[in-house]
Amino acid sequence: MGDHKSMKMYKAALMAAGSGLLLAACEPANSGDVIVNQSASASDARDGQRASPDAESRALNAAIQSGSEELLWLEEVEGEAALAFAAAQNERSLGHLQADPRYQQLHDRALEVLESTDRIPFVGVRGGELWNFWQDANNTHGLWRRTTLESYETDAPEWDVVLDLDALADAEGRNWVWRGSSCLSPDYNRCILTLSDGGSDAAVRREWDMETRSFVEGGFEIDATKGSTAWIDEDTLLIATALDPAETTTSGYPFVVKRWTRGTPIEEAQVVFTGAASDVGVWPARYQQADGTFYLLATQAETFFESVYWLLPDNAQGEPIRLTLPRRVSPQALFGDQLVFSIEEDWTPVEGGETYPQGAVLSLSMSELAATGELPAIETVFVPGERQSVGGFAATANHLLAVIDENVVGGLWVFTRDENGWQRRQIETPENTSVSITTADDQSDLAFVSAQGYLTPNTLYRVSADATSLSPAKSMPSWFDTTGLEVEQREAVSADGTRIPYFIIHNPERSGAEPGPTLLYAYGGFQVSLNPSYSGTMGRLWLENGGTYVLANIRGGGEFGPAWHQAGLTTNRQRIYDDLIAVAEALVEDGVTTTGQLGVMGGSNGGLLTGVMYTQRPDLFGAVISQVPLLDMMRFHTMLAGASWQAEYGFPDENPEERDFLRSISPLHNVNPDREYPPLFLLTSTKDDRVHPAHARKLAYLTDALGLDMLYYENMEGGHSAAANLRETANRLALEYTFLMQNLMDGEE
């Protein structure tokens, strides 16, 4: 279906693309040298008994709580003083954690998993060939490569390396990080490659010639920006870039789509659609049917969850046509002539007509819609039950595959359509595993799915041509000893009576006999579901060392459909935090762990979650890890992509009630200098142009000034994942688990 997946996943792209405006930063009161000295003195205080915060530190905390922007200078991403603070903190944190003899062991065991050649080489299908991007110990930047289906199904596929990213990085002196490719069907000879320097979301786009295996001299090339492209034909692109501030939204994404013809300057590209600066962003995409018929669309995201879709002309004369779909809608697939989409709100297309319920999957004729601009007849594909949700769709030539989650565990279904409408049946999958669709080819009936569980390594299965069964194709080795380990799904009761499911992976003989070190993980936002998955690194670094792992499916996610997510939006967000508190309290009450042995970890929105746990319930945890977090909820909307998340968190400049609520939960604004807090580990990345590193920097600076037990690590590369390559990932994991062991295990009797 061409490159339409960029449209299907545009909500993820909001978190993964775009450049924000840096605000003018004032100079700090102290020089970099003073900051270094301050860090040293706070560290010395932590080595003994914590000293009472001095008057200057209390004044700083009071100023922050009153709304003063004392720490605005930390928003200057590469400001001299900000980087000096980060460097001093890095030196202290790395010195403390890497000096622990466990660090190197954990690092090496993690790296063995991450760089193993026994990993499954997951593929995409393009022109009958299987494509893969691969990183290992010898290819840290990675290889873009392809093979045939016949070769792939052998134990040792023969890979044709199309691009060696390590060689390119060396030749050009850039820390290239692969961000994907978009190739023009049906020949797939011309591609747009997206490459990020150092892992930031802003990336360059360069045209690649498959026949010469080189970048096209004088071809399409776009400087580093947040945006997207879609092919019209071999000489024409649709582009949306944030290169021009006048065409960039307040969230840092483009809102203008242009038609760019080969051989002309990008500045002369013809405007085909214009949104508004107040939008989150606008993205073009190409939807293509198996017979080659394609449609060009633009997604105008007015908020993170509400979008207007436009049918764009494939020539220079036509006008965009607005599609009369609900604003809370997610396109899923183009199956034959049917556009399949899910809705996140109740929808009555025709006044007095049928109302389709929130969460339903529907379809309509794309050709009729394009021909008339009017809404065709709507057909129901699937309506989830109370404990079900849609995990994703993908189309082959004759079947529409779907993952339908039932009580957080996914099953595989196949849909077909005939004169009687949509029919469905379930395909048998391995028990106690979570299923995901890896790739599907709409030019044939080739499809692969993967299945995995907390204790079950990922296995890749090929779907039979008639979509009735699965056959194993590749499997991941078992990376850790599962002897005695079991997986249970339990429920905790939140403050409002809602039952919150969570998975616990433990040795019941141990956890039933005495409490033990336990790591609690959650996310709780943006309708992101957390399903059972196999982690060789978590198993090796935590479970094998006697730890218990818990994953909580709190509200804010999509585990039970749109309503589960929407229950925690804006001023209702305390429900999400109450959910996690309820799970943590249940773990203590059930004797699984103690408050001193319970750690909590989360990243991005999950970093906000753990930051709130730190300030609201410091008595409940023995250690807190906050990765690439949001922590300053008074200014989140002013930094980088933050404005795009206001539909999730609230509009502090427009709604006083929402501003007051954000102030009440903002971790930066709720530190009490006279309260005891558990050890805190903050991690971020200088190159993260999605969640600004200033969030973590500010809380690090404040807690350091107050003499609290805090470690801070800022990776100077890596983007939002805080790691630009596998070795950096191994380092981050080893740091985190060393911190957890020091604080949750070393005090065990």
TrEMBL record:
InterPro entries for the chain: AB_hydrolase_fold, Pept_S9A_N, Peptidase_S9_cat, Peptidase_S9A, Prolyl_oligopep/macrocyclase
Query: What does UniProt give as GO cellular component?
Result: cytosol
| Ranges where the Peptidase S9A N-terminal domain occurs | 72-474
One Gene Ontology molecular-function label: serine-type endopeptidase activity
Residue stretches spanning the membrane? none
Q: Report any Pfam family annotated for this entry.
A: Peptidase_S9_N
What keywords are assigned to this protein? Hydrolase, Protease, Serine protease
User: In what residue span(s) does the Peptidase S9 prolyl oligopeptidase catalytic domain sit?
Assistant: 541-744
Give any single GO term for biological process. proteolysis
**PROSITE patterns documented for this protein:** PROKAR_LIPOPROTEIN
Q: Does the keyword Coiled coil apply?
A: no
Protein name per UniProt:
Prolyl oligopeptidase
Tell me which species this is from: Glycocaulis alkaliphilus
